[in-house]
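Project standup — Tuesday

K.O.: blocked on the structure for the chain from last sprint. Re-posting the sequence here as requested.
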Amino acid sequence: MHLEVKQVLARSERAEARKAQWRNMLEQCYEFALPQRNLYAGHWESGAPGTSKMDRVFDSTAINSTQRFSNRIQATMFPPYRHWCRLQAGDDIPGDAKETLEMALDLYNERMFAVLRQTNFDLAMSEFLLDLAVGTAVMMVTPGDETTPVRFEAVPQYLVSFEEGPHGTIDNVYRKMRLKAEAIQQQWPDAKLPDKLQQMVDQKPHEDVDLMEATIYSVKDDYWCYHVIAPDLREEIVYRELDSSMWIIARWMVCSGEIWGRGPLCTALPDILTLNATKRMLLQNASLSIAGMYTASDDGVLNPQNINIEPGAVIPVARNGGPQGPSLIPLPRAGDFNLAQIVINDLSMSIKRTLLDDTLPPDTMSARSATEVGARMSELANNMGASFGRLITEAMVPLVKRILHVMEQENLIDMAGMRVDGRQVKIVPVSPLAKAQNMEELDSVLQFAQITQSFGPMGQMAMNQERALEFIADRLGVPARVLTTGDERAEMMAQMQEMAEAAAEAEAGAGEEQEVAA
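H.V.: unblocked you, prediction finished:
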């Protein structure tokens, strides 16, 4: 279903209009907590990179805690240069083929993470999680070249608008972008440039061109229509039909009737604004204490309109006490530094708790036990709540599916018709946070195993040790290739039985020889 340019632009404008309702809140979140990624307040429209974005920021608590939020989520769910998920055979795979399939999936899993180490995935994921602190994170995953097989780009919220499909899924995505004229043909070799745009490429190759990407799902045809449009010219320069969407969109929390996510920064925004205003007033009070502010007699020489209320200022007055009073005296200062410091501390702690930056005791100490690390992971999982499951559903699973799809397109793997749908092949998190949650199940199994030992042979019969070991290996994320298969275990048992029988026969023969010798 190839939509006309005017239809695509109309849908994009409607999506952008719905997003405009969020502008005030998003602009404040980015200005006071993520100023370096802030494209609001005219920073994108002006096209002037390097401008100051922190003129109204007086406190860095939210900035530092947001960065720490991103680092903690990445370290516990997508740790750099480590495996954070595993491909496993689904429930529809019969038992006799499951072990063989899992060994093949382990090889694909190893190859996938080897490819990720060649790409900018870790850098893009860090920026992706920074946007997630606001509420909605967007990443684009596209095929690369021989050096970088897969490309990842964390796209700022400001540039993206989207439409929600059935069951809360994001189907249609619209993105504003700005590109050098000479780079258009390099990025899209199949681009068909209109005459006016081609003339600009030839004459002004270094000038920026505003474009719009649209990825729209066709329900009837079951594929995604990819458009690249020059809005000013209302001309389409690229059209493709894709069998997999390039967009990964994750939301921290979604309220009923809304499609944009609300993150911890939205919750902490009142405290952030209050803390910033308190710091600003405290600095003003401090400057007044240092420089002072004075009153001066209005004797017709000074013009009150030329006097400003600021540190070091002189304010004309009729008299300074008494019949005439002194000519110049300091103005009494208001405000309590100690009370302001108490308010600042309370607000800072509240912001840190909201952004999961309240680890106690401090985790900067050199020696930490495994128990403490596990307790921290368990506490983090509890604080994240349902957002952990949403990250798995909207970020990890679609991300792995897209990566495998691109790798198969690049002939790096061959899934042989297998679908990553949870029934044939499923994606299992093995990140530190997921392992911390699995430890609760492991503790129950290990505790039961200890109890059965106290009941002697009858208690040991209550647990299938082979299945228990398989369960423990699964929860710990042990690769299938390091485990023995059922056939290998049966062969080993047969060999052990043969060795036991041979030893018994040898012992019996030795006993008979001793009797004959006697």
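K.O.: great, moving the ticket to review. Residues 486-517 form the longest helix (32 residues). Residues 224 and 244 are 7 Å apart (CA to CA).
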